[in-house]
């Protein structure tokens, strides 16, 4: 009878050890502002790949939730993560001006919080709150400087703005206007929000063309709106208008290759993904992390587009 007892004890021990190893994987809740945004889809996919790259028993399990561009829904998701006692939370905020309650809830619960892609508007973040983003002002500077030189410092431009509740929109446009201050010969003919969407960018540019607006370039806060602008110009038979976007998505890269866009500012989705997941993992393990991590933008033109593919 002793042998079966010893075997049972050993088997139980192994099962417990196996269960412990599985339980050792960190649980991280991720609230994305939207699942239907092209760039954020790449970001989400790269976050998932990074989480799966760690060894079993010392890895990260991500639970993704779609806030559907709803501030209240996103706060509720964060509160649910807290009730589940996750080890860390990653948030891609719906509204960068409305993150106070998210920060308060996470810090009060003692759960590490990482903001990815979009940094909260508040200047100083509390301890145990990290931001992994890119300098959106630099993106605006890069695209506008390239277009300004192509225009020879003269002409009219239109600006397609992203979601007005997002500081990426504010900062990218700020970068554009910082460069424009050096080129008094370039005027802004129109600027309106296309809320990041291709069809909205197409509709706005089509409306401006119908109104008889005269412009030499389109500065879009992202590639999707830039591609929409290109579609509207093609449909109207309008040639010679320079178009610049931001993100360097596969569709954006293809548009540059085909000559439908002049430039884009590459936003490194993989860099943001790796940085955010790694930050959440380290914070959950009580390891030191840089609080403000900035992943640089890079200018994409027809001359270097191949290296981004």
UniProtKB/TrEMBL annotation:
Answer whether the UniProt record assigns the keyword Signal to this protein. yes
Which compartment or compartments is the protein found in? Answer: Cell envelope
What name does this protein carry?
Rhizopine-binding protein
Q: Does the keyword Transmembrane apply?
A: no
Q: Which GO terms describe its molecular function?
A: carbohydrate binding
Q: Which organism is it from?
A: Pseudomonas fluorescens
Which terms does the UniProt entry file under GO BP? transmembrane transport
Which UniProt key words apply to this protein? Signal
**Where is this protein chiefly located?**
other
Signal peptide residues on this chain, from the entry's feature table? 1-23
Q: Name one GO cellular component term.
A: cell envelope
Give all residue intervals belonging to the Periplasmic binding protein domain.
28-287
PANTHER family (alphabetical): D-ALLOSE-BINDING PERIPLASMIC PROTEIN-RELATED (PTHR46847:SF1)
Q: What family does the database annotate?
A: Belongs to the bacterial solute-binding protein 2 family.
């Amino acid at each position: 009878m002793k042998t079966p007892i010893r075997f049972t004890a050993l088997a139980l021990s192994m099962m417990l050890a196996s269960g412990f190893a599985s339980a050792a994987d960190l649980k991280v809740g991720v609230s994305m502002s939207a699942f239907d945004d092209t760039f954020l889809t790449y970001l989400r996919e790269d976050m998932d790949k990074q989480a799966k790259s760690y060894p079993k028993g010392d890895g990260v399990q991500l639970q993704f939730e779609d806030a559907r561009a709803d501030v209240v829904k996103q706060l509720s998701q964060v509160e649910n993560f807290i009730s589940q006692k996750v080890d860390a939370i990653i948030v891609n905020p719906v509204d960068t001006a409305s993150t106070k309650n998210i920060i308060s809830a996470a810090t009060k619960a003692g759960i590490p919080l990482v903001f990815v892609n979009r940094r909260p508007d508040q200047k100083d973040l509390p301890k145990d709150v990290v931001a992994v983003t890119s300098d959106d002002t630099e993106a605006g500077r890069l695209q506008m400087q390239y277009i300004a030189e192509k225009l020879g410092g003269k002409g009219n431009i239109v600006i397609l703005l992203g979601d007005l509740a997002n500081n990426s929109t504010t900062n990218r446009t700020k970068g554009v206007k910082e460069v424009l201050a050096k080129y008094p010969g370039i005027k802004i003919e129109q600027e309106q929000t296309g809320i990041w969407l291709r069809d909205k960018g197409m509709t706005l540019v089509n409306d401006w063309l119908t109104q008889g607006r005269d412009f030499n370039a389109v500065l879009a806060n992202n590639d999707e709106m830039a591609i929409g602008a290109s579609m509207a110009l093609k449909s109207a038979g309008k040639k010679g208008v320079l178009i610049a976007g931001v993100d360097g998505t596969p569709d954006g890269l293809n548009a540059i290759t085909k000559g439908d866009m002049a430039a884009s500012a590459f936003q490194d989705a993989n860099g943001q993904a790796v940085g955010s997941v790694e930050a959440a993992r380290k914070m959950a393990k009580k390891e030191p992390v840089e609080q403000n991590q900035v992943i640089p933008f890079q200018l994409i033109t027809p001359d270097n587009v191949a290296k981004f593919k």
